[in-house]
Amino acid sequence: MTNTEFNLYPHQEEALGRLRSGSILYGDVGTGKTFTSLVYYNLNFSGKKLYVITTAKKRDSGDWEDEASIVGITDIVVDSWNNIKNYMDVKNAFFIFDEQRVVGYNTWSKTFIKITAFNKWILCSGTPGDTWSDYIPVFIANGYYRNKTDFVQQHIEYDRFSKFPKIKAYHNQGKLLKLRQNILVRMKMKRHTTRNRKYVNTEYDKKQYKQIQDTRWNPFTEQPILNASEFTSVMRRIVSEEEERQWYAKFIMSIHDRIIVYYNYIYEKTILVKICEELGKPYSMYNGQTHDDIPDTEEWIYLVQYTAGAEGWNCISTDVMMFYSLNYSFKIMEQAEGRIDRLNTPYVELEYFYLTSTSKIDTAVRNAIAKKKKFNRSAFGKEK
Q: Rounded to a whole number, what is the distance in angstroms from the first to the last CA of the chain?
């Protein structure tokens, strides 16, 4: 126990002992990174002004302020990554960068580097990086490299036969492993929950599927399919709009009082809204245009679009989630599952329903997710 007013879990206590300014607090969804980072600040840098850079949804939800008040922090500025440039001139403060957005070397990353040069900081992330290039901003912020050019000269070999910059190999990876080990603080916890995943295979129109595959003709636009991205999107729509999938979705949504439903595309949202109205159940949505809160009623359905709502919120009032279709990214799927798998959830058994099919497109996406990778649409679209 670090404070008499609240308890910390063992994995949080362990992380506190290893954190320093410049660390990445790395933990799965729901491990309590927010609370741990606030306690770390309060114990070590309470004399400095606290700034939190997070997602727009988490900024608007007030979750950071709520947890800060538990720790005893009242003076806190919470803003989104979209506004990070507003804090470039801040000095002698403490920053918590939440929900890793400094992967690669983009505008946010460059601003992040400028801010960290004059302030103490830590970064919270569930997915700190897939490749060594993802760590470039954090390595520079820690003073390991002067700039990106310095990193490239020491570690990257580009493919000179590629039309675009393509990394052929990384060199001196022993040094990179050591540097990453210096900054990564992993939060490992024993969950009290069990994720029960149930895959429901639904039928699809095999004849139409094969016809599109052979002719490369888009039946929705009445035009030839122009590229790999359009091809995969058309194939996914064929299997997603199938009546049997809609029937299973309606059945699952009807037998649970409270359920969160994820979807990818607008046409899937249209299908799900129709089901909600047919069932007569109250429903709310979170997507690029609509930001409804989760209903506070005995029965509800919460429709969430992956891109807009895979992170930055949580729910402990249901133990059921359904995925009308799989997202292309393992990271997004993991983040989505974690919305109900929280430290403070009262549930032990969590139910996840995945609607899929035996089609090549669904099988390929599912295999990529199983391998913890991102589905390659270009490669699939080029297959004949």
A: 60
2 has pLDDT over 50:
no
Global pTM reads: 0.73
Rg of the chain taking only CA atoms, in angstroms: 23
Mean pLDDT along residues 48-57: 92
DSSP annotation string for 339-383: TT--TT-S-SEEEEEEEE-SSHHHHHHHHHHHTT-B--HHHHHH-
The residue type of 26 is Y
Give dist(CA 53, CA 252) in Å, integer.
38
DSSP 264-325: SSHHHHHHHHHHHHHHT--EEEESSS-BPPPP-SSSEEEEEEHHHHSSS----S--EEEESS
- What's the DSSP call for residue 261? E
Burial 330-358 (b: 16+ CB within 10 A, else e): bbbbbbbbbbbbbbebebeebbbbbbbbe
The whole-angstrom separation of Cα 76 and Cα 62 is 11
Give the separation between CA 42 and CA 36, rounded to whole angstroms.
10
Token couple for 138: 């954090």
Beta strand pairing call for 258-263 and 300-305: parallel
Mean pLDDT of the chain: 91
To the nearest 10°, report the CA torsion of 84, 90, 96, 98: 0
Q: What stretch of H or E contains 105?
A: none
Across residues 157-169, what is the average pLDDT?
Answer: 82
Q: Which two tokens stand for residue 212?
A: 């599109």
Instruction: Using DSSP bridges, classify how beta strands 223-224 and 217-218 pair: parallel, antiparallel or unpaired.
Output: antiparallel
Average pLDDT over residues 120-140: 88
> What pLDDT does 344 receive?
85
65 vs 70: CA distance, rounded Å: 9
